[in-house]
């Protein structure tokens, strides 16, 4: 198998030069020209393919799909059977039961690195409630991947990619259940009740229990490094990029630094919130997430119902082209599957482990309770929101406004010869259905982007703390770098952002999935404990 060229080789072969042509470029173009070689190299490295039945399939997707399928089967379709239980946990039905049981039989947690058997202060059981933890995690996953990346998936893979996105979302619910349970089980809580959790901790501490001390430390450190990178890319730069694209498009802004200025505005607003930490982030996201969901889902449903007579045809296309795609689709049947699973993975992050960081902050003594809450994320994110976006775009393209499978640099070929990509395809679909609705979409895009940036700032900071320690100055350094990427993302092209962001999110799968496959029996124990508690209460 041909190895991807190293970044150094790519950089040397095509270095960004300061020639006369470059000097004429705008600020945004210069930033993009410098960033693209790294984005291309990183994408080719992480999405390295292995040949299966004559098709090259990215190894990371094989690991992701296989792991999700295994967890679904092993836990007896927990994603379906215990979906109602998860809803009840989020609603707070079992909160009093959990608190009472925790007092009778206190759980063992790490406090400043030391195991303690009894923690009587509820502040030491977490920082946020189940709904706030879900809202924070959902705000990290329900982002522009649901709007822009769905458009990219359909542009490349056609309507059939939607089918595989939905399947990936359903399977991903089981992976999310496992990683969120482990996130709570192996978290650290300091004497002030501040929580430090996520894959970094269950990889290091969980694998240490299994006797894999060095492997655990290595995987934890690798995950933390990649998570910091993912927070800069998919959780930040991609969000500001697509928000800026919408604002520029809607208001017809011009000027060589328009993107940078919009990115700077986002950075200032995000900086005001992230300084307050997870509690302030949770308070903002629990208000923003329901509002942005109602705004976007409401507009999508309005469009779908206004074209109800064509919905059957759109659904038929999704199923038909999932198995027999048009010849123009790159890679044919396998190519459609890859697009569906790749975009779903970017969107819901199941198997990547990122959301376990937010869920670790929940106030509970029963790890499996939050595992159940976590499985709702891929359903909300992919099965609901992504599917609505896909149907709106497919309805819009019934007459072939753009050509499926003909995508260059992240942009689809329109039937008039022009090209358009990402969120702007979705925007056209909205505007075509309801005049003026593209402004509603723009508002939703900005809210999606802002909430995702907030959540990922927390994910990245937790990983940064794991690597460099817990201090105010260390936190400040990360936050400054993070906010610089908010500006950078708004300045570079969609193609560069997609390459970097996709690869960064998917790279997390490698260390995380190894840990999940070694630690899943621990989840089984925690799940039985929690379900026994609920069953006992129901019997009484």
UniProtKB/TrEMBL annotation:
Domain of life of the source: Bacteria
Compartmental location: Cell membrane
Coiled-coil regions listed in the entry: none
Mode of membrane association: Multi-pass membrane protein
Residues spanning the signal sequence: none
Residue spans crossing the bilayer: 59-77, 218-238, 258-276, 288-308, 314-338, 383-404, 439-459, 480-498, 504-521
Family per similarity comment: Belongs to the alanine or glycine:cation symporter (AGCS) (TC 2.A.25) family.
Xref: NCBIfam families: agcS
Name of this chain's protein: Alanine/glycine:cation symporter family protein
Organism ancestry: Bacteria, Pseudomonadati, Bacteroidota, Flavobacteriia, Flavobacteriales
